[in-house]
Amino acid sequence: MVYGLSPNLKEIHIDRDRLGGFAARFPLKPAYSWNQHWQGFTLDKKLPGTFQKGALERIVLSKRETDIIKRDIEPWSEYTDFSKLRVLRLCPDVCNIREDVLEYLLTFNFACLETFELWMGKFSRTSFFLLPCSSSFARAIKRFLEQVPALSTLKLQDWDPKLELDVLQYSNLRKLHLKPVVGSSVSLNNLNHIAKYCPLLSTLVITLRRLRGNADEVKMYKVLGSMARLAYLDLLLVVEDPKFRLGGCGKAPDIPSDPSFDDFDKEFYPQITLGYYKCPRKGHLRDGFINSALDADLVSSIFRTINSAKPDISVLLKKMTIRVDTTEFTNDIHDRGASTLYYNVLRYLGVEWTVERNYSDLTMDNLIAIRTGKNRIEWNRCFQSFGDTCLDLGAVFHNLWPSKGGSSEANDWHSFPLATGDNEAEIERWLNRNKSG
Known about the structure:
Distance between the termini: 69 Å
Protein name: F-box domain-containing protein
Order of helices and strands: EHEEEHEHEEEHEEHEHEHHHEHEEHHH
Largest sheet: 11 strands, mixed
InterPro entries: LRR_dom_sf
Number of strands: 15
Structural class: alpha/beta
Strand order of the largest sheet: 1-4-5-6-9-10-11-12-13-14-15
Oligomer: single chain
Number of helices: 13
Helix content: 25-40%
Radius of gyration: 25 Å
Number of domains: 1
């Protein structure tokens, strides 16, 4: 299509998934045929017949089912002046980026690169999950990020803590997207590194683990508030307890309980065994409900907590999008199994909200919180009834949110407040009062 017609071409997107399985057999290369590059792309109009590299500003390479390898990049470097490149996105799907790709990119000058997107995870074709990357792969990414001083936008999908975030000090990030790999999370220390090394950050997309609103969770929100220029926040919340992940099926006695669990909470819930998960206790399900329950009161409280930590001379948070991260909810929402019904309750409780300051009111504390309904699931996908196979799941729900008479369970729930003290006592008192209520 562009053969001989592309001397001014600046942007290339190749999505191998959209091209279909036949196209997956061919390399990602700037070629009209197997041995001929785009002639118009590489001809110098001032010096007819001479060769110069193309001045692409944006390259997006996406493959499905076959790894992105060094051979996919080599033709682009042969015909493209990487020193002019402003955007580079490497986005595999159910496949990997080979380590030699990063090693090869390290040999070039990306002086103008402003946006870089990379999937760090290592896809397992046996478990069909993205696993943590190798230490050597993380080191290669670190070396690459150290040599792109113009970088202002960075997206790391399936980020692994092996890549320490002090590497961010070598760029001038305005936008950061950080989605941890399954089984990892962004820690308080990680957030402190972002706050320290990204003083110009204005937009942040990040995944944090909810901790039932306890003091440690509040500390993370306050670190977000310490980012003086942060104005736009997209917050994904991990709500499941990581302690019973990746342990296989069964109700082994060493599956941890919690000091807050009563006798009911300590009981196992054998209906939920997800193959690579350990069988949870009912208290784990309860905590999942607590962490997922987002309403206007809670999302507004999180927004205010962030803004309350803003330095005196700073930009207040303008808009926040917040929702439960459903990445690990791999089940079919239409299935009627116990695990599906449980996950559907989490989806229902944790649907997306947006919170913005109300600029029509001069009062700084006046907010507009809207439940967007994006990816919303209907309540009838959560429980048909509290009988049959889900009796215990209904009991967990009602133990947390007692029935209000003739009302629907869909209207009985509410969020729980953030802890405002230095410990979790306030949260635990609230939960105990609710149980007895």
